[in-house]
From TrEMBL:
Residues 137-395 form the Peptidase S1 domain. It comes from the Eukaryota. It is found in: Secreted. InterPro entries: CLIP (IPR022700), CLIP_sf (IPR038565), Peptidase_S1_PA (IPR009003), Peptidase_S1_PA_chymotrypsin (IPR043504), Peptidase_S1A (IPR001314), Ser/Thr_Proteases_Immune/Dev (IPR051487), Trypsin_dom (IPR001254), TRYPSIN_HIS (IPR018114). GO terms for molecular function: serine-type endopeptidase activity. Residues 1-20 form the signal peptide. The keyword Cell membrane does not apply. Coiled coil: none annotated. GO terms for biological process: proteolysis. GO terms for cellular component: extracellular region. Keywords: Disulfide bond, Hydrolase, Protease, Secreted, Serine protease, Signal, Zymogen. Belongs to the peptidase S1 family. CLIP subfamily. This is Peptidase S1 domain-containing protein.
Length: 396
């Protein structure tokens, strides 16, 4: 994740005597009129974590629980750091690093321009789709407590005032989630909020055993939905094309170790990885299990790709041209997304510029009446077909 537990212990050990300032208070670190805020809300601090922790240490203005607060300069401010580390000047930078850090001389003198808030529509690879720190239960049915941290549950309210969870969604920015359009029809109920950071719906705070220790997350976070954007191509009668929608939260949500966005395929290289035969995706959710009961725990499953030609043969009622905007995967007995997983993520890890990230390539749309049926793959909305629409909608 962005800041792992080892780094947290490092920070806590070194900064135990730091005077804590209130959140959003004015402070001075590298520039006057900075603001003391959660480290996850400060783009500069996040970009410096992997480059020079001493600088981040100097920025610290206390803690919010166990999460560091930093004195974050106003966006758009230009700051010059000298004598960072030789590593910064000599190592091969990623594309993201190259865009944000300009080498001034061979003496490791670096100018960093703090990005304007919301200047980029989508989070950088330093933030999105981070690989879980602990590799646990590989191949198992139960997801790790810090796996799929972008996954959210949508809460609905029916005409009788009853509230319940049904579909899933994926966090793609600090204020937008993506889901299936069919999850937002009156048939299910009125979507009112989302829950992020959930692992076990039976407990208020979740803990998972790891070796001889327990890993516990923070309490789930509930955020109200303020706006819904459904794709114009979606037809509730067929629900096969344009089955994609965005949810806007009423306020931004801070990123944590257990709540982070998934990356979207925004580069040419990653886009080319979206529907490669003989490759596999991962998906997760709280859907119906093999016992026809909803799972209280976040579960995961690996699904292999199925060619669109084969998929069209199986689902001949779907017009052939629709398959350009769909991905087919699964079709192995007992391995599939089931009721309750609709709107969830179909993801794959991609390495670009030496960085590994999880990318969202599909949204759970539809499939056989009996999920996990042999020879009956699931159908997923293909994200790469809708990237222009996603950017345009978020830019509104």
């Amino acid at each position: 994740m962005i800041i792992n537990r080892l780094f947290m212990l490092f920070i806590l050990t070194i900064l135990g005597s730091v005077t804590s300032l209130p959140l959003n208070s004015t402070c001075e670190s590298m520039t006057p009129n900075s603001t003391c805020m959660n480290i996850y809300k400060c783009p500069l601090a996040l970009s410096l974590i992997r480059l020079n922790r001493d600088v981040v240490k100097e920025m610290t203005c206390g803690f919010d629980g166990t999460t560091p607060k930093v004195c974050c300069p106003v966006s758009g401010t230009s700051i010059i750091f000298t004598n960072l580390t030789e590593e910064i000047a000599t190592r091969k930078p990623s594309k993201v690093t190259t865009q944000k850090i300009e080498e001034i001389s061979q003496e490791s003198k670096v100018t960093t321009m703090i990005p304007e808030i919301n200047s980029e529509l989508l989070p950088s690879r330093k933030i999105c789709g981070q690989v879980a720190i602990r590799d646990r239960i590989v191949g198992g049915l139960i997801a790790g407590i810090d796996e799929f941290p972008w996954l959210a549950r949508i809460k609905y309210r029916n005409k009788f005032g009853e509230e319940y969870y049904a579909c899933s969604a994926s966090l793609i920015t600090n204020q937008y989630l993506i889901t299936a359009a069919h999850c937002l029809t009156d048939k299910i109920g009125k979507p009112i909020s989302v829950r992020l950071g959930e692992w076990d719906e039976q407990t208020e705070r979740d803990c998972q055993k790891h070796l001889q220790d327990f890993i516990c997350n923070d309490k789930p976070v509930d955020k109200n939905i303020s706006e819904i954007f459904m794709h114009d191509d979606f037809d509730v009668k067929s629900a096969k094309k344009g089955d994609i929608a965005l949810l806007k939260l009423d306020e931004p949500i801070p990123f944590t170790e257990f709540i982070t966005p998934v990356c979207l395929p925004s580069t040419e290289y990653v886009t080319q990885q979206d529907y490669v035969l003989d490759s596999s995706y991962w998906t997760a959710g709280w859907g119906i299990t093999e016992f026809d009961l909803p799972s209280p725990l976040k579960r995961k499953v690996s699904l292999n790709t199925v060619s669109s030609d084969i998929c069209h043969t199986i689902y001949s009622e779907i017009p052939e041209e629709f398959f350009e905007t769909l991905i087919c995967a699964g079709g192995v007995e007992g391995k599939d997304t089931c009721s309750g997983d609709s709107g969830g993520s179909l993801v794959k890890m991609v390495t670009e510029d030496y960085e590994k990230n999880w990318y969202l390539f599909g949204i759970t749309s539809t499939g056989p009446k009996r999920c996990g049926s042999e020879g009956m793959p699931g159908i997923y909305t293909r994200i790469t077909s809708y990237m222009d629409w996603i950017r345009k909608t978020i830019r509104r």
